[in-house]
Design brief:
Number of strands: 11
Strand order of the largest sheet: 1-2-9-6-5-3-4
CATH superfamily of the largest domain: Dehydroquinate synthase-like - alpha domain
Radius of gyration: 20 Å
Strand content: 15-25%
Largest sheet: 7 strands, mixed
CATH topology of the largest domain: Dehydroquinate synthase-like, alpha domain
Shape: globular
Bound molecules: nicotinamide-adenine-dinucleotide
Distance between the termini: 49 Å
CATH class of the largest domain: Mainly Alpha
Order of helices and strands: EEEHEHEHEHEEEHHHHHHHHEEH
CATH architecture of the largest domain: Up-down Bundle
Structural class: alpha/beta
């Protein structure tokens, strides 16, 4: 670690831990001290990330007893079957109660590694080493773990806070461009929803971010993690304020389902979802037109979609009603009063939502 590395402390009822953000961290033994990582380590990765980074990470882990498990790549493998394979491999490797699981990969690997750690022997430690921008700014922090079920995404899981998060922005160099830009949507989400200064900083540094400038990325990941940590600390289990992290997500979720998972990346759907949330907020007289335009413009600069795909308003509305975040049949959405100033509207007028979706569909 050097002076330019930043450490963000996350304090929750489920555990306190550091998120370290910097460059070249996966090569540095001092990022994995004995009080964070015991003598037995079980590394979960996938066939894309493993060949790129597993050797470097295990070299930094030194003389510990290390078992490496490589899963196939893809959201379609975020299943109970993969979870069972991880547990089987941990049993075969005779991992003890004081073993530590490391999730080396994007959100898919992090969620599965975290869930296996939450369950194995009723819970062992997990250290997250996120390798996508989305995982560094979102999935690795906050303790949500789990797998998908044919009946729904992330339907099975547990809250299990990591022992540490090591976010090495240098590994983002190899991330495919589309995945990278989808991660930028989540960065914009923190600015648009929670932190107006950060939103302005993203606007000013958009080109540096597009070029994956290490210093710009370090700042973007730090500020995103700080924003997430602040919310998670107040509301670990999403009883209230944590919902603000879902700006654009109910619209986005409907887009993902309507297009069939995988054709739109999550971040792309969230980008279009944030624009729709902005337009709805404007329509309700809450968000000034200038702010809505800035949000749309920034997402366009990042090459992200700012309109939903051609799907009828009725279909999207039906899917929005089925979202997990909908309570007692009411449309509960995150709206904005200004950039950086979002709130939970527990009962959005359905006619207004429909009007926004109709207008977007009409182009
Ligand atoms: N737990 C949470 O709070 C939380 C929050 C948001 C999203 N998620 C979950 O995260 C998942 C999505 O995560 P994601 O967007 O990171 O997708 P992902 O894990 O599928 O990674 C995207 C792709 O990038 C590849 N990849 C990862 N790191 C790379 C690198 N450094 N270089 C080259 N390729 C690399 C992966 O192998 C994969 O093909 C979803 O399952 C979602 O439910 C969880």
């Amino acid at each position: 670690m050097d002076d330019s590395d930043a450490v963000i402390r996350v304090e929750t009822g489920g555990g306190a831990y550091d998120v370290t953000v910097g460059t070249g961290l996966i090569d540095q033994p001092e990022c994995f001290p004995a009080d964070v990582l015991g003598a037995e380590v079980f590394v979960v990765t996938n066939e894309t990330v493993g060949p790129l980074y597993a050797d470097r990470l295990t070299a930094a882990l030194g003389s510990r007893r290390i078992t490496l498990m490589t899963l196939p790549d893809g959201e379609e493998h975020k299943t109970l079957e993969s979870f069972a394979r991880i547990i089987d491999a941990m049993v075969a490797a005779r991992m003890h109660r004081d073993a530590t699981v490391i999730g080396l990969g994007g959100g898919v690997i992090g969620d599965m590694a975290g869930f296996a750690a939450a369950s194995y022997q009723r819970g062992v430690a997990v250290v997250q080493v996120p390798t996508t921008l989305l995982a560094q700014v979102d999935a690795a922090v906050g303790g949500k773990t789990g797998v998908n079920h044919p009946g729904g995404k992330n339907l099975i899981g547990a809250f299990h806070q990591p022992r540490a998060v090591i976010a090495d922005v240098a590994v983002l160099d190899t991330l495919p461009e589309r995945e990278y830009r989808a991660g930028l949507a989540e960065v914009v989400k923190y600015g648009a929803g929670l932190d107006a200064d950060f939103f302005s900083w993203i606007e000013a540094n958009a080109q540096a971010l597009l070029q994956r400038d290490a210093e710009a990325l370090r700042v973007a990941v730090c500020r995103s993690c700080e924003a997430k940590a602040a919310v998670v600390q107040q509301d670990e289990r999403e009883a209230g304020r944590r919902a603000l992290l879902n700006l654009g997500h109910t619209f986005g979720h409907a887009i993902e389902v309507a297009t069939g998972y995988g054709s739109w990346l999550h971040g792309e759907a969230v980008a279009a979802g944030m624009v729709l949330a902005g337009r709805l907020s404007g329509r309700l007289g809450l968000l000034p037109a200038d702010d809505a335009a800035r949000l749309e413009n920034l997402l366009s600069v990042f090459g992200l979609p700012v309109a939903p795909p051609p799907i009828s308003a009725d279909r999207l509305l039906d899917l929005m009603r089925m979202d997990k975040k909908v309570l007692s049949g009411r449309l509960r959405l995150i709206l904005m009063k200004g950039l950086g100033d979002s709130f939970v509207e527990a009962d959005c007028p359905e006619g207004e939502v429909r009007a926004v979706l109709h207008a977007a569909a009409a182009g």
